[in-house]
Design goal:
Oligomer: single chain
Number of helices: 9
Structural class: alpha/beta
Number of domains: 2
């Protein structure tokens, strides 16, 4: 079964100045016009060894943290030698330096970074806090990501992703599920990230987060209409249900023994093709699919249990006929 396409993953330096890291009170000291440099590694680095003249472990794409210990050491280095090390560092593929604890940068270092269009940010916060917050932020943003056209719902505690061609009634089915007490995560455009644990987490992005488009009605705000319990910020994707038009003569799985998967970011997710025809209540079918999948997770597979019973009965009849 075809799945999603992974998007290139990186974070621009300017994103560090957003509301998520406002507690660090970061400000730009130089290269304000070059904050589009890409951070590609989730781990930050302290360049103490590089300032001592050993540059082998400076990794491209990492945020470099300069704190009190690095500054104290640099104060012991002769000015001429210190400039040489600054020059080498400013020419390396580093996206940004972050100076902590409100320490004033060396004027020479500031000028070299400005000349090389290398941004320097400053924070009054301790190095340990800056490292922890930046690492958490980058680990959350520098994971494989993709975006799919569909609707993500929480149904009986499971994350159910509804996909299918435009006009199949995904949003209408989602609205019906919401009125039954289930929750909307994202409509129309679902952003999905795969974390190191293997979890696929889906959510909606601003400005369409918690909104739905319904033909004939337009855009509605689900949280305002149905309350806070009707929405979720993010959810693990446990099941993919594809809505498709019922095609006469097409063979569909009638027993539920066929186990298919839908690949999202190279991770397989249980997948169901659900044919839609006049008179079929899609919301009820999605509820049943979610309940049935939950039972499977608990070790109860109704279709296989029935198949085993039928096989046993056929075997008993066969043995009786031989006697």
């Amino acid at each position: 079964m075809p799945g999603s396409t992974k998007e290139p993953v990186s974070v621009e330096v300017t994103e560090l100045l957003g509301p998520e890291l406002s507690d660090l009170r970061l400000k730009v000291l130089c290269a304000e016009d070059h904050l589009d440099r890409s951070i590609s590694h989730p781990r930050v680095q302290k360049p103490g060894l590089a300032f001592a003249g050993y540059y082998a472990y400076i990794k491209p794409g990492r945020v470099q943290i300069i704190g009190e210990s690095e500054t104290a050491y640099l104060n012991t280095v002769p000015q001429k030698e210190r400039r040489v090390r600054f020059e080498k560092m400013a020419e390396m593929p580093i996206p940004v330096f972050v100076i902590t604890k409100g320490i004033e940068p060396f004027p020479t270092f500031l000028q070299l970074c400005r000349d090389n269009r290398l941004p320097i940010l400053s924070s009054p916060v301790l190095s340990s806090t800056v490292i922890k917050r930046l690492s958490f932020f980058l680990e959350d943003h520098l994971v494989p990501v993709t975006r799919l056209h569909g609707v993500l719902m929480e149904v009986y505690g499971l994350g159910v992703l509804l996909i299918g061609k435009s006009g199949m009634g995904k949003s209408e089915a989602a609205l019906d599920l919401i009125t039954r007490g289930h929750s909307l995560v994202a409509d129309d455009r679902v952003t999905i990230r795969r974390y190191p644990s293997g979890d696929l987490i889906g959510y909606g992005e601003e400005p369409i987060k918690h909104h739905m488009e319904l033909r004939g009605l337009g855009i509605i705000n689900v949280k305002d209409l149905f309350g806070l319990a009707a929405v979720r910020h993010r959810k693990t994707i446990d099941l993919v249900v594809e809505l498709e038009p019922w095609t006469q003569g097409k063979v569909y799985d009638r027993l539920g023994l066929d186990e298919s998967v839908f690949n999202i970011l190279d991770s397989p997710v249980p997948y169901i093709r659900m044919p839609i025809a006049t008179g079929r209540n899609v919301a009820s079918l999605v509820e049943i699919a979610a309940r049935n999948h939950f039972l499977k997770l608990q070790g109860h597979d109704s279709a296989r249990e029935l198949a085993l019973k039928l096989e046993a009965e056929i075997e008993r009849k066969r043995r009786r006929s031989q006697h």
